[in-house]
């Protein structure tokens, strides 16, 4: 097969298996397998793909057709300025999370903040912040063994060992290891889907770890833990920025308020959906 034929074959396969945007996915696959830039097809389209490359490409395509997310198939994804390794067992970072990070950055006043990134997953938030705050110290807390593997690798591959410290632990107990008034910033994109809604999520999401998504009966378990146990860990004047799901804003705002937070704000994304709650203490 030539590269052009392989491209056509991939487009047809992905379109027929229900991909929302086969063109983008094929572009990503070509970039991953053949380092293809936008001139690649003009220069190489009629050349034959080697048997070895064709086999590897088709096998990945089949994995994708079975519903496996593209990001797991190619093994990496970017979030803000961070390039991250991802695979089964770790949540794929979403662009939506940028709202939480940008809101946080707009509130940080110090150049060397001490930050806790709770439920860090691949390290997307911690590493994105480390790219901006070179003098920060960022504690990235993650419980899952598989996710922690990616967190450690991503810290290393982004050369952030001096800034981001991975901590394997449960946010519902590890707060005891930090004294009150310790952090300048707490940021988190915790699991926040209601348990009863998990089975109805789109096919690709079922490949992602349930532990990264399940926020308990009302989806709010982690906001309770954070409001009650982590807010006291903020210094006076400290900042908290939490990603939330649509419809969770008022409940999270109330929890933070009941636990002493001030200036609590619900921030919407460009689509008008509730996406983040921020506050100070
Ligand atoms: C929604 S994901 C967010 C990952 C990452 N922060 C991001 O934005 O891409 C939530 C993460 O919380 C982790 N997690 C779940 N329960 C936890 C707990 N009790 N303590 C620490 N981390 C936990 C999951 O393993 C998962 O990596």
Report on this model:
This protein is of the alpha/beta class and 281 residues long. It is 37% helix and 19% strand. It has helices at residues 3-16, 22-34, 40-44, 51-65, 70-74, 98-107, 124-132, 145-157, 221-230, 249-258, and strands at 76-79, 82-85, 114-118, 137-142, 164-168, 183-188, 234-243, 262-268, 274-280. Helix 9 (221-230) packs parallel to helix 10. S-adenosylmethionine binds at residues 91, 93, 97, 119-122, 124-125, 141-144, 147, 170-172, 189-191, 211-212.
Question: What are the SSEs and their pairings?
Answer:
Blueprint: H1 3-16, H2 22-34, H3 40-44, H4 51-65, H5 70-74, E1 76-79, E2 82-85, H6 98-107, E3 114-118, H7 124-132, E4 137-142, H8 145-157, E5 164-168, E6 183-188, H9 221-230, E7 234-243, H10 249-258, E8 262-268, E9 274-280
Parallel strand pairs: 3-4, 3-6, 4-5, 6-7
Antiparallel strand pairs: 1-2, 7-9, 8-9
Helix pairs in contact: 1-2, 1-4, 9-10
Bound molecules: S-adenosylmethionine.
Residues 91, 93, 97, 119-122, 124-125, 141-144, 147, 170-172, 189-191, 211-212 line the site of S-adenosylmethionine.
Mean pLDDT: 96
> What small molecules accompany the polymer chains?
S-adenosylmethionine
User: What does the radius of gyration come to?
Assistant: 21 Å
Give the distance, in angstroms, between the N- and C-terminal Cα atoms.
62 Å
Number of strands: 9
Briefly, what CATH class of the largest domain? Alpha Beta
The name of the CATH architecture of the largest domain is 3-Layer(aba) Sandwich
Strand order of the largest sheet: 5-4-3-6-7-9-8
- Low-confidence parts: none
CATH superfamily of the largest domain: Vaccinia Virus protein VP39
SS-based structural class?
A: alpha/beta
Counted by DSSP, the helix tally is 10
